[in-house]
Amino acid sequence: MRGQVRAAMGAPHYAPLLLRMAAIASVIKVSDEDLRQLFPGDADPLTTLRTLAPQADILLTLRAHGMEWLTAAHGGQDDARITQPAFAVPVADTVGCGDAAMGAWLASQLQSPGAPVQAHLRQAAAAAALTATRAGAYAGTQAEIDALLQAHAASPA
């Protein structure tokens, strides 16, 4: 599937579609790898994305380095950036980790809308970590996410 997605990013119709979607997005989930594919040769693809979508909050996944939440700049201020390190787990396969992170982020937002951003990021990082421990794109259950978070309660990751 990854190869097909990467090929689609290079299709002639993709750039105009990306511009239209970025202009109306309120949240964008993107990985560091996605950024390099979306903006090949760009020395600072995150800044390019931010220019295209100044209104959007960004969930940036960074593979083994965790993830960052960048809030849209308001009133001339720079983005606020909140970092969540990855949880250290034995890795079997990384396919699906970004999808699991986004799904857990959304579920956390729906289940605990008043929780701090860091709590949502921890849920997302735990889901990604659990997915990495399995061959194939198999996300963990909420009970497994909660158990991983409990086991790592004393540390940010």
TrEMBL record:
GO molecular function: catalytic activity
InterPro entries, per the entry: PfkB_dom (IPR011611), Ribokinase-like (IPR029056)
Pfam families per the UniProt record, alphabetical: PfkB (PF00294)
Residue ranges occupied by any Carbohydrate kinase PfkB domain in the UniProt entry: 7-140
Gene3D superfamilies xrefs: 3.40.1190.20
Record-given protein name: Carbohydrate kinase PfkB domain-containing protein
Gene source species: Ralstonia pickettii OR214
